[in-house]
């Protein structure tokens, strides 16, 4: 029997577009809500999503190339495509859940940096000890702002030091979380003017200037802080008056002393 490749490829194209539409909905959730701005690049959301969607886009249309046959009855095609759709949906849901485990749930000031805390870094027992209701749950609607206050008790401070050496510092303990606004004085003290960021930035200068210009504000109205996340470092541009984060930049400012 002669294979009608034209019809098969039309079926593949339709399937690909349908899969792409579903992937677009997932992308909107991931990049507009869970990983806004440069956070996706910083904590790996972009890479995870590309892997998930890449597999899904390949899986469905390729199976469509195999199963489509105009000689099949409508019932047979419905059954075949229903099975493929279920496999794709299961793969997409699993992938999105993997991405969700890496989503930033808290962003806060600690010592002299902005810390990005992802869902996978927080234990349920530690969450239960959160100082406020909003610090006891992992947000599904985007990261929440907070600040981290080091314990005043000497023994507790010592325990935290040993915990930090083991890889679990204060930002992983919601019992130390406070309102972001309570750290305003500390943020203003530790943040720096943009000139100190641009000076000596070399090859990164053009991209930094472009990111700053995109905000559409005078440089003197902004300051910056180092961002720390589970994969390294980045930059946070903050409002010089309110100290609220304005923009994140996925560049490690290694040139700054």
List the helices and strands and how they pair.
Elements: H1 5-34, H2 39-42, H3 45-67, H4 74-101, E1 104-110, E2 113-118, H5 124-128, E3 144-148, H6 154-165, E4 177-178, H7 184-190, E5 192-193, H8 194-198, H9 205-215, E6 222-229, E7 232-239, E8 245-249
Parallel strand pairs: 1-3, 2-6
Antiparallel strand pairs: 1-2, 3-4, 5-6, 6-7, 7-8
Helix pairs in contact: 1-3, 1-4, 3-4
Short description:
The chain folds into three domains: 5-101, no CATH class; 104-190, no CATH class; 191-257, no CATH class. By secondary structure, the protein is an alpha+beta fold.
Structural overview:
This protein has 257 residues and is of the alpha+beta class. It folds into three domains: 5-101, no CATH class; 104-190, no CATH class; 191-257, no CATH class. The protein contains nine helices and eight strands. It has helices at 5-34, 39-42, 45-67, 74-101, 124-128, 154-165, 184-190, 194-198, 205-215; strands spanning 104-110, 113-118, 144-148, 177-178, 192-193, 222-229, 232-239, 245-249. Strands 1, 2, 3, 4, 5, 6, 7 and 8 form an eight-stranded mixed beta sheet that branches. Strand 1 and strand 2 form a beta hairpin.
The geometry reads as elongated
Order of helices and strands: HHHHEEHEHEHEHHEEE
Q: Give the radius of gyration.
A: 24 Å
Q: Would you count the extended β strands for me?
A: 8
Strand content: 15-25%
Q: Mean pLDDT, as a whole number?
A: 90
- End-to-end gap: 72 Å
């Amino acid at each position: 029997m002669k294979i009608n490749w034209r019809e098969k490829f039309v079926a593949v194209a339709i399937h690909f577009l349908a899969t792409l539409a579903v992937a677009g909905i997932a992308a909107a959730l991931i990049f507009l809500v869970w990983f806004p701005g440069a956070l996706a690049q910083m904590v790996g959301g972009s890479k995870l999503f590309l892997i998930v969607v890449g597999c899904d886009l390949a899986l469905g249309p390729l199976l469509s190339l195999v199963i489509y046959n105009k000689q099949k009855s409508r019932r047979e095609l419905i059954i075949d495509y229903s099975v493929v759709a279920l496999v794709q949906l299961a793969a997409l849901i699993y992938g999105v859940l993997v991405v969700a485990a890496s989503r930033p749930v808290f962003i806060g000031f600690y010592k002299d940096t902005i810390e990005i805390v992802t869902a996978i870094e927080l234990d349920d027992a530690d969450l239960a000890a959160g100082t406020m209701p909003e610090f006891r749950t992992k947000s599904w609607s985007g990261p929440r702002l907070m600040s981290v206050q080091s314990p005043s008790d000497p023994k507790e401070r010592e325990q935290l030091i040993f915990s930090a050496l083991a890889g679990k510092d204060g930002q992983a303990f919601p019992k130390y979380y406070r309102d972001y606004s309570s750290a305003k004085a500390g943020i203003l003290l530790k943040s720096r003017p943009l000139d100190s960021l641009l000076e000596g930035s070399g090859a990164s200068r053009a991209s930094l200037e472009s990111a700053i210009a995109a905000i559409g504000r005078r440089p003197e109205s902004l300051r910056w802080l180092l961002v720390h996340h589970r994969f390294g470092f980045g930059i946070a541009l903050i409002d010089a008056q309110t100290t609220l984060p304005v923009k994140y930049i996925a560049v490690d400012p290694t040139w700054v002393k």
